[in-house]
Amino acid sequence: QVHLVESGGGSVQAGGSLSLSCRTSQYVASVKRMGWFRQAPGKEREAVATIDIDFHNTHYLDSVDGRFAISQQNADLEVSLQMNNLKPEDTAMYYCAGGPLYGTWSDARRYNYWGQGTQVTVSS
């Protein structure tokens, strides 16, 4: 069974930085896009950033564009999310996701594999 293994997250004051990492427990040929979603209490899950594994195209939620950067580690199914200038509204549970390339990058239904989630808390 394939798992997405997440690390990183934590608590930081506004303006600070955190990083998240995610890798698959084994190679999965069908995983062509990986990224991060987040869900705050009482809100729907939203796509934050994704990267296309083979072509390295990236996609960002408008509110994080310019502050967050997603990258891929070599040719492996491992991605990192560098989060800078964090704001209290970035507070949420962050989930790593992996799936095929087709479909809208922000559509959670397109992703087959999910991590357990890691908490990011930004205090004002």
Notes on the structure:
The protein has 124 residues and is mainly beta. It is 0% helix and 48% strand. It contains no helices and eleven strands. The chain has strands at residues 4-8, 10-13, 18-24, 33-39, 46-52, 58-60, 68-72, 78-83, 92-99, 113-114, 118-123. The strands form two sheets. Strands 2, 4, 5, 6, 9, 10 and 11 form a seven-stranded mixed sheet that branches. A four-stranded antiparallel sheet has the order 1-3-8-7, with no helix packed on it. β4 and β5 form a beta hairpin. The chain is globular and about 40 Å long. The chain starts with a strand and ends with a strand. The relative contact order is 0.31.
> What is the number of strand segments?
11
Output the number of helix runs.
0
What profile does the largest beta sheet have?
7 strands, mixed
Low-confidence stretches: none
Instruction: Give the rounded overall mean pLDDT.
Output: 95
Rough shape? globular
Question: Order of helices and strands, N to C?
Answer: EEEEEEEEEEE
Q: SS-based structural class?
A: mainly beta
Helix content: under 10%
End-to-end Cα distance, whole Å, is 40 Å
Estimated radius of gyration: 13 Å
Q: Give the amount of beta strand, in percent.
A: over 45%
